[in-house]
Write a structure and sequence with these properties.
This protein has about 230 residues and is an alpha/beta fold. Helix content is about 45%, strand content about 15%.
Length: about 230
């Protein structure tokens, strides 16, 4: 347990990817075994990457993250090129203007409906130990950060090898082909920045690919490791 600001993060440091890799993971605030916090902002999430790496004595890292975490990893890589070997962004960090007033209200209503069942899901690890309102605000903040005018320049500024592993179809709360439209926002980024490429697009949806397609993710990690030295 790593004390950070007003919370503590559960950190593991292993060699799960084999003898050539040191594999450090951590549970974000109020997730897994990590403790609650008064600050669930995006900037707090970025600071936590530094806190974990500093605590483990890591000078340079290859960052791998999924969904919301992919945006965190993209920002961290863009801000810290000297500390970043490369990045693998798993079905997240797509510059697309998906948040408008109607979507913001839809997010608030969705989490308000989930408020009754969230306490039942928390022991399974499927939901963080945050209130429904806190989760809604986190998703709304993500929508603002994901706008092309916000996230596009961040991705353009990445100077290290970066690979995306994309899912197919829907994600939690999405309808129809909404998620595929969001993923299409990546096309302009890969055209502008030669450091960023799509490693693979798998058939699994957003919620299933970590379990079903972990080999595709590990392949992307090894590719970035070779390129990043």
């Amino acid at each position: 347990m790593l004390p950070v600001e007003d919370t503590a993060l559960a950190v593991t440091d292993t060699g799960d990817l084999g003898p050539d890799f040191r594999h450090i993971t951590y549970d974000e605030r109020a997730r897994g075994k990590s403790r609650r916090s008064a600050d669930y902002s995006f900037e707090a999430a970025v600071r936590d990457v530094d806190a974990v790496l500093d605590a483990r004595g890591v000078e340079r890292a290859l960052v791998v993250s999924w969904s919301y975490g992919a945006v965190v990893a993209a920002h961290w890589a863009a801000r810290n090129p000297e500390r970043t070997i490369g990045a693998v962004l798993v079905d997240g960090a797509f510059p697309y203007d998906w948040l408008d007033d109607a979507m913001e209200q839809r997010i608030r209503k969705l989490f308000k409906r989930l408020n009754l069942i969230m306490p039942l899901l928390r022991p399974t690890g499927l939901t963080p130990r945050m209130t429904a309102a806190q989760q809604a605000e986190s998703n709304i903040e993500l929508g603002k950060l994901s706008r092309e005018a916000e996230l596009g320049p961040v991705l353009d500024g990445i100077t290290v090898p970066t690979r995306y592993v994309l899912a197919s179809g829907t994600s939690f709360g999405s309808k129809g082909d909404e998620q595929e439209q969001i993923r299409a926002g990546l096309d302009a980024v890969t055209a502008r920045n030669p450091n960023i490429k799509v490693s693979v697009k798998v058939e699994s949806n957003h919620g299933a690919l970590l379990k079903k397609d972990f080999r595709a993710i590990s392949d992307a990690v090894r590719e970035v490791a070779r390129l990043g030295g």
